[in-house]
Every structure is written in structure tokens, then in C-alpha cells.
Amino acid sequence: MSTATLPNDPPGGRRAVLVWGLGVAVYFVAIIFRTSLGVAGLDAARRFQVSASALSTFSILQLLVYAGMQIPVGLLVDRLGTKKVLAMGAVLFTAGQFAFAFSHTYGMALASRALLGCGDAMTFISVLRLGSRWFPVRYGPMIAQVAALFGMAGNLVSTLLLADLLHARGWTATFAGSAVAGVVVLVLLLAFLQDHPEGHEPAPVAHADGSRVRRQIALAWQEPGTRLGLWVHFTTQFPAMVFLLLWGMPYLVQAQGLSRGTAGALLTLVVLVNMAVGLVYGQIVARHHDARLPLALGTVAVTALLWAAALGWPGHAPMGLLVALCAALGACGPASMIGFDFARPANPPERQGTASGIVNMGGFTASITTLLAIGILLDATGQDYRAAFATVFVIQALGLSQILRLRGQAERRERERVVASRVETVHVPARDLMA
């Protein structure tokens, strides 16, 4: 993979880092809000007097809204730009977090999480678009992984800080206090964020009538790289998402007999490994494009083996096995980011938001399915976590079959694009390259 700068590449530099950093800060806060329920699951069950399947509905509804918003958000980002979409997202997820703080009924709490999910849905695709507008294309894989790294730092804040605040200050003070962060990032992005550097304005987008929107989606979907990216995201992301978002704490405390403190430490390990592995995967993919699929498939295989060992262990699994499992789950997030590295080269700049939205639906669709299945099976089997978590293998098998089906098509199409790009570069007049 060539690392040469293309003629129309954005300049990058310090200003790019500062502007892009504002977008990442919005995403960071969104992740804090998204994952705050993960450390409050047992408290939420008591507060709203709900069963396991009803408790899972919180996260399912939030992710269902998130997944359903991905293509509309991708279209909005392509049409309106990053700043407007991020601002809308910040308003919505902050309002959702405030409302959740003052919820006293199950219905109100559900509506609050849906509002939060709607705002959250507008953040990550916007940050990906912002990075592609401010940095040279060769930095794409690393930019995506670093953005995800800061997102996991938001998860770390939830795990370490909100859990302690929840027990020290109570429900309302914790969630309302955290919502103030949303107000702060909203003010900052309105004051300082800029969609693109001067001289690198994107081509104007025509009015998005119904037929044009359908064509935009259809063209992105027709690319095998987009579909392969979706299934890579689908297969890799959900085990860690389900664990961190809701079921990790109950599984470790109720099924494995650990204290809340020890369980919290293992959840923290998932986040820390995610942050470390993200940097490694980003560097590898940026330098060795052919490593994308082996990294993704290797992560799926290791995760499946360790889940099988933990669930099949008679009695409580040994701590070493649980540590290894949590470390493997930490690699799932970085592996899911590889999905965007299949869609990015398969689509032109004017379809990047739409294609990213399609890819991002993958992991969240898998997470919704798994969250629901685990909740239903726990209620049906009398809290049998072994039976409930076996859902992981079914979802992984489905995703793996689609990856293997699409990889050949995507590879051939990407080679065709590389050849066409080289031919176009050869025919660019020297005066254009010097401009």
C-alpha cells in the first residue's frame, strides 16, 4: 500500500488534529452516556422493578434506534456536513441523559434511552467523515482506530467513575451530573468546529429527493467492499458490546460469583485492552492492507474459543480464564473497525457517509439480537448463563459464513479500483500535480 500523498489530499497538521479532536470529544461523551447503563444494570432492575428481558430492552431499544439511524445519518452527513449533524447529536444525547436521570417509571426511562440512542447515532459517522476531510487518505485506518480508542476511554470513565458515583451520590445526581459534559462539548463544537480546511471544500451535493437517496444507498450497497465491511463489523463487534453494555457485570457477579469490585476490574480490562489493541491494529492495517481479514478472522476465532472454554467450565471458571476472555473481548472493538477499511476504498468521497452508515449497522444489529436473546433465555431457563451466552456462537457463525462468501468478490473489485486509479494517475497532466 502506497503512503504517497495524493494531489487533492487534505493537509493534515496541528489544526487538523485540533478540529478533529473536537469531534472526537463529542463522540467520547456520547460513549460515556451510551455505556452508563452497563455499570447500572443491577441498580436499574431494582429502581424500575423489571426482569432480565425487560432490563435488556433498555439497551436493545437504544441500539435499535442507533442502528436504524445509521443510513439516514450517513445521508445527512453527506448532505449537511459534520458540524450540523454533530450538534444535533449532542443536543439529543444530552437531553436523553438528563431525562434518564429523572426517570421514575420504566416507560419514561425507555423513552430517555431511545432519545439518547438517536443522538449517539449521529456521532461516530460524523467523526469518520471529519477525519477524511482533514487528514490525507493514508491516515484513514489509524484515524478510525484512534477515534474508537477515545470512545473506549469514554467507556472507561463509565466503568471507573460512574460506578463509584452511582453508589456514592445516587441515581439522579450521577446521571444528571454526567449530562453536563454534553452541554460543554456542544458549546465547544458550535464555537470552533469546522467541516473542512480552506481550499478543500467538497463538491456540492444535489438536492436529496427520494430517488437520489435510494440511488445513493443502492450504489453503496452494490459494492462488495461495503457488504463485506458490514459483516466484518457484525461478526467482530457484538461480543464486547453485549458484555460491556449490559450483561458483563451480571454474568461475572451472578454466574461467576465475583464481587462487584472484581467484576468492575475485569470490565476495565476489556476497555484497556481495546485501547491498546486499537493502536496496534491501526498501524498494521495502515502499513499492510492485506492483513485486514486475517486480523478480523483471528479475533473472531480466539473470542469463540475462550467463550467456549468459560461457558463449558464446570462451576466457576478460573480467574486466569476470565482474564483471558476479557482480554480477547478487548480486541473485538478494534477488529470491528476493520469493517470501515473495506468500505472506505470501495466508495467515492460523496458516498463515504452512506457507506459508513451501512457498515456501522452490522455490529449494532448483532448486538441488539444478542442482547434480546440473552435476556429471553435467562428468563426462560431460570438464569442459566451458559445457555443464554451460547447465542454468541450462533451470531458468530452467521457472520462468518457471510464474510467467507463475500471476501473474494471484494478483493477482485478492490484490485480493479487500484488498477483504474493508477491508470488515471498516469494520465494526470504534470501541471495538475504541481498545482
From the 3D structure, determine the CATH topology.
Answer: Growth Hormone, Chain: A
How is the main sheet built?
A: none
Distance between the termini: 24 Å
The geometry reads as globular
CATH class: Mainly Alpha
Spell out the CATH superfamily. MFS general substrate transporter like domains
What is the CATH architecture annotation?
Up-down Bundle
Low-confidence runs: 1-7, 428-435
Helix percent band: over 70%
Secondary structural class: mainly alpha
Task: Specify the number of helices.
Answer: 18
How much of the sequence lies in strands comes to under 5%
What does this structure look like?
- By secondary structure, the protein is mostly helical.
- It has one domain: MFS general substrate transporter like domains (Growth Hormone, Chain: A), CATH 1.20.1250.
- Helix content is 80%, strand content 0%.
- The protein has 18 helices and no strands.
- The protein has helices at residues 14-35, 41-48, 52-80, 82-101, 106-120, 124-134, 140-169, 171-192, 210-222, 224-255, 260-287, 292-312, 319-330, 332-343, 352-380, 385-389, 391-426, 430-433.
- α4 runs antiparallel to α5 (106-120), α10 runs antiparallel to α11 (260-287) and α10 (224-255) runs parallel beside α12 (292-312).
- The model is unreliable at 1-7 and 428-435 (pLDDT under 50).
Task: Give a concise summary.
The protein has helices at 14-35, 41-48, 52-80, 82-101, 106-120, 124-134, 140-169, 171-192, 210-222, 224-255, 260-287, 292-312, 319-330, 332-343, 352-380, 385-389, 391-426, 430-433. 80% of the residues lie in helices and 0% in strands. It is globular, with a radius of gyration of 21 Å.
